[in-house]
Every structure is written in C-alpha cells, then in structure tokens.
C-alpha cells in the first residue's frame, strides 16, 4: 500500500493538482506519519488488553477506502484524507504483525524474526514502487496504479480473518518463564511505559530516537527523492526504478541483518547502520546523475537494513513480555512521527535552501543519531 505512493504521489501533486511548494506536496506524508504514530500507540495498548488478532483485522478494514479516495480525488485534500486512513491502517496492522512475531519467535530468534518481517514489508514496498512507476508511465498516474491497492487491501483483510491465529498466549507463557527464573514481576502503567521508552531507560530511549531519525530520513526520501530525480531529468519509469532500489536493498538486507543481530548484538549494528544511512543520503545530495543516485540508494538501503529489525529486536530484549506490546507501541509512536518531522522539515528547508540543502541537513541529523546510540546505549542482547 505504501509502495504504490512512493513513486507517483509527488508527481501526481505537481502534474494533476499543480502544487509547487514542497511543503504542500509533502503534506500527505506528514498526515500519514502522525496518524500512523498515534495508531501505533493504541495498537500496542489494545493488543495487551484485547489480543492481537482483533486489532490486525480492524487495521485492514480501515485500509479499504484508501485507493478509492485517491482514484476519485477532485482535490489534493482528498489525497491527504486517504493518507489518514492509510496511516491508521498501517499503525494497527504493522504494529500488531511485529508484536505477534515477537510473541512467536522467542528471545533466541527475535532478530531473525524481525528481519524476515521487515524484509516482507519493505521488499513489497520496492516491488509496488517499481510496478506503479511502470504502470503510470504506460497508462496514467490515475486510476490504473491504484487498482493494485484494492487487491492488496482485500488480500490483507482476508488473510487476517482466515489464516491468522491469536498469539498473546505465547507472551503470557514467556512472562511465566521469566517469573520462574527470577525476573521481576509487575506491569507498569501506561505513563511509566511511555517515560521509559521515551527517555528514562537509556537503552529504550536510544532505540526510540534512532527509530525517529530513521523514519525522518525515510519520510524525506519518500517525498523529496522523486522530485530530485525529476529535476535531474529522469522520467516516471526511471524514478520508479530508483524509488524501488532503496527499499529493495533495505528489504533483502534484513534477511541477513536481523539474524546477524542475534549473533553479534544490537548496539553497534544500529550505530553503524545510522552512519551508513548518513553516507548514502549525503551522496544523494551531491549526485548529479543516475549512477550517483543509485549508489546513494544502495547505501541508504543497506544502512536501514542494519538498523530497522535490530531496533525492534532491542525493544523485545529490554521490555518485559507483560508490557512489551505497549513498549512497541510507544516506540513506534515516536518512530513514525519521524515521517511527519521529515516531511515538514524537508519541505520547509527545500522551499528555502533547495532540494539538495534539505537532503544534506537530514544526512547530518542521521549521523548525529548514530553517535547518540554509540554514546548512550548499552548492548541489550542477552548471551548465555
């Protein structure tokens, strides 16, 4: 669903709705980020209270209007409204999918499970971006590319209803095992969990700020990279291919990096991954042609693959099973607010300093985030 938007919504904003200011173009990402962030938080709380599967099914029901709203949109405000539905859906479905896989995998294979999970999502983003770029170049920006969205939403809903089983019992069993092994008992309240994940616990807080900055640069890449590629003279098909390269490397790489974090630990994979991201974004800021853009996308994808599943695995390492879903919800609240911050910051800076100036600023922020992890975070992987 997100991949459909990555290659063509910025072009749709310029060509069909005649938006010129980057801040206005990126408004759909800001709205998506805020609604997804809030939905993430409630997905965690609801999953702890009512179970995982009902939240997952509800999320796919909310997804259904999204492609129809964009296909029928008479104004840009309809596209923004469609991203409210998409953000809520993503928050409920993706948070619940993550929580369920953490439930099922157990401590030993948590990084591997997160790598497989994130591979599935972001390789699909790459394929959808590539497909919609080709469809838009062959037919039109609307409605043909969004037929895929209808199929995706219906498939996700049916699979969730028919094939998925509740997993909260696995978390309860893990909590009992920890209690039997002397782990502290007691479930903190919502305010305490929020404080721990946001700032009080140095490990959880380091993970949270890295997640926020990761999605800040992803929001910038989503909104500004297609405009940067177009300004360099690339057509829709080429933009779709370049937009697919970054999440493609990201998705495939996570099959290796998630399992690697189970072997070597979380901290330095996260810190170095943020630095590799920064290098890829900086290269994109100074590149002038397709080869430079492609190299920047590969570096950004590789760095994100190092970071993304490892952050979730680290949350699972630290948070007790009795409040882990809530911790994941708070982490993903802050992480996906990064989309909004990236869209707003990228749009404002691009309108004043140009596209390349905005991209360079985000590269600097990403490097600083990796340094915070290196200085504040301790290793969270428990080795027997």
TrEMBL record:
Keywords: Cell membrane, Membrane, Transmembrane, Transmembrane helix, Transport. It comes from the Bacteria. Its main location: membrane. It holds the Pfam family MFS_1. The keyword Disulfide bond does not apply. It is found in: Cell membrane. Signal peptide: none annotated. It is a multi-pass membrane protein. GO terms for cellular component: plasma membrane. This is MFS transporter.
């Amino acid at each position: 669903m997100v991949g459909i938007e990555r290659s063509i919504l910025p072009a749709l904003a310029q060509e069909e709705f005649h938006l010129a200011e980057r801040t206005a173009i990126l408004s759909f990402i800001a709205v998506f980020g805020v609604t997804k962030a809030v939905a993430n938080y409630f997905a965690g709380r609801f999953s702890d209270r009512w179970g995982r599967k009902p939240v997952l099914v509800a999320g796919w029901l909310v997804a259904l209007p999204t492609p129809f709203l964009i296909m029928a949109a008479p104004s840009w405000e309809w596209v923004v409204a469609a991203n409210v539905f998409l953000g809520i859906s993503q928050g409920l479905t993706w948070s619940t999918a993550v929580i369920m896989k953490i439930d099922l995998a157990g401590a030993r294979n948590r990084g591997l499970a997160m790598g497989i999970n994130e591979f599935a999502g972001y390789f699909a983003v790459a394929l959808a971006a590539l497909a919609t770029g080709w469809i838009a170049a062959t037919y039109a920006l609307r409605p043909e590319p969004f037929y895929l969205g209808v199929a995706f939403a219906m498939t996700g809903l049916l699979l969730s209803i028919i094939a998925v089983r509740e997993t909260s019992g696995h978390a309860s069993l893990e909590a009992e095992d920890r209690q039997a092994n002397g782990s502290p008992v007691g479930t903190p309240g919502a305010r305490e969990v929020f404080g721990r994940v946001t700032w009080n616990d140095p490990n959880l807080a380091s993970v949270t700020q890295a997640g926020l900055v990761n999605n800040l640069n992803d929001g910038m890449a989503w909104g500004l990279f297609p405009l940067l590629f177009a300004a360099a003279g690339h057509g829709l098909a080429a933009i779709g291919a370049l937009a697919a390269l970054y999440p493609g490397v990201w998705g495939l790489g996570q099959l290796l990096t998630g399992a690697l974090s189970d072997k070597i630990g979380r901290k330095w994979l996260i810190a170095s991954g943020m630095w590799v991201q920064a290098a890829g974004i900086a290269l994109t800021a100074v590149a002038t042609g397709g080869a430079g853009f492609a190299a920047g996308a590969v570096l950004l994808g590789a760095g994100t693959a190092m970071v993304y599943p490892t952050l979730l695995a680290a949350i699972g390492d630290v948070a007790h099973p009795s409040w882990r879903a809530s911790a994941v919800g708070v982490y993903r609240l802050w992480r996906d607010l990064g989309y909004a911050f990236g869209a707003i910051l990228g749009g404002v800076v691009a309108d004043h300093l140009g596209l390349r100036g905005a991209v360079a600023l985000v590269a600097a922020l990403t490097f600083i985030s990796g340094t915070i992890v290196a200085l504040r975070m301790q290793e969270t992987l428990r080795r027997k």
